[in-house]
Every structure is written in C-alpha cells, then in structure tokens.
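REQUEST ID: PR-0412
SUBMITTED BY: lab tech R.K.
PRIORITY: routine
TASK: structure prediction, single protein chain
INPUT:
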Amino acid sequence: MFGRFDPQGIDPKAFAGWVRPISVSGLTAAEVGSNAHRVERTLRDIRLDGADHFVARFQLAGRSAMTHNEEAVRFGVGDVVLVDLARPATFFNFANGCQRWNTIALFLPRRPLVSHLGFEPRGGLCRRSGTAVVRVLLDLIRNSGEEASPRSPTDCYVRLAVHDLVGAVFAPGDPAPARHADKLFMRVRAAVKDGFSDPDFGPCEVAERVGISLRYLQKLFTQRRSTCNEFIYSIRLDYAAHLLQRQAALGANQALSEIAYASGFRDHSHFAKRFRQRFGHAPGAHVGEESCNREGALNVWG
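STATUS: complete
OUTPUT:
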C-alpha cells in the first residue's frame, strides 16, 4: 500500500504485524502495527517499488524514533511525522511490555499535494500532539470507514481539506514557499511563451504543462494582481508588436491577418480590438519605433 519496508531486529517466527485499510474520501490510509524493533526503507526498496509519495504517520501506541532526510526525531502517542517515500528512512521502536507500536498512516501522492500547497513539504518533520490541527487531521482519518464508499460530491472538498490540514501541520518556518512560487511562476511564463501562438491555448493548458492545478495557477496570478488569460493576451500582443516593428524595419508587407494568426488570435477584428486597448492605436499604425511599446515587445522578444 505504501511501499516496501523491511522489519528488522526480531526473529521472523516471533514477528507480528497488522494492517487495517481506511478510505478517506478517495485518499488511502491504514492503521499499521508491529512488534519489530526496527523498520527500514532503503535505497533498494525505493528502486524496487518506485513509490513517489508522502506519508503522514500518526503514533497511536508506543514510542518511536526516526532518522530520515538528515533529521533524527523521537515521537510518542499523538505525534505525527512526515515521511518522503522517495528517500530512505529508519524507524526505531521503544515500546514497553509487549514491544508493539501502532500508527495510522495517511498516503499522500506527491504531485496533487505539492500542486495544491504550492510548496513541497520536507520529509523528516515531526509535529506534537498538542497542536489543534494535528488532532483535527487525525480525527478526520480515524472517523473514516474501512471500505471505499460510493463516490460523493463532497469527496473532492474533503480531499482539499485534508491537503490544507497537511499543509498547515507541515508548513516550513522559512520563506521557501515564496521562493518556490517565484520559480514556479517563471515556469508558467515559459509555458505561455511556448504555447501562446495556439488560439486554443489557455489557463487549463498552462496548468497541465507546468504540472499544477488550475486553482493554484489562478492563485499565482491573483498574488500578482492579474489573471492567466490577461497574461496570455499580453504575450500575444507583445509578439504581434514585435512582428509589426520588424516588418516596418525590413520594409516587408505582411498582411495584418497573418500577423494576428501568428500571434495566437483567431480573427483580425478581435486582434485589432485587443491591440488598440493595449497600445492606444490600430495595428496598422504601429510601424515606427516611436509608437512601439519598447518595454513590452522589445524586452520580451528582442
């Protein structure tokens, strides 16, 4: 369910372990327990299963420790740790008496989680049981059923809520998310410049190329007081202005309808309307350097 793990430090004949599946509105979770003193996930395990997910691991019984992602933490009942299955991890059990530990593990596919949060959480983090958000997230998982129920219209909202809670629990304490958003927006700009000439190219295609959700794409532009549609049209108009200026410099005579189509517009009338709104004059008047928007067209296209 979650990838390969190797229980060690116990005679195989004495080993005991159990797994109880839990469905959380389409997300997979499980209650997992064992009497193994040590459980490892090695580079070999990673190569063999290729799992690329996070696991939020809530401690229900016993005390444990984890070394993972250059972090070493101890945790007890009610605490939660984040495990990145793309990296090795080792767990140690310090339970008393029966020497058993018990956890609930929530399975979080990387791409949907990172796309929703806008940053990639770091495996190896531990959050204590006293945090209200930790308790809410654990209660949500524990109150879900063992079997996958028929799809409900509310399932997608519950999954979004789970992602929000995970983000709240494991949000980093430094400006890394902001740096990540800036790098992501650079990828968005590159995707738009690659695809703007297609009249059917829009926000959905941008989100798909960059590998983020449409919701998060909209969030990136809202933070910059703009929209993805307006940005695409801005790039199209900058490119059209560049073509017009080059045509004037070379003394060429390319039809305006051809320039409109090459810039991603379906028809000349829409192109002319947008162009006038942007530059204050018709495309046919955009022939001199003095009327060209240097800050836009020249800086973008050179």
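NOTES: DSSP finds eleven helices and eleven strands in the chain.
REVIEWED BY: pending
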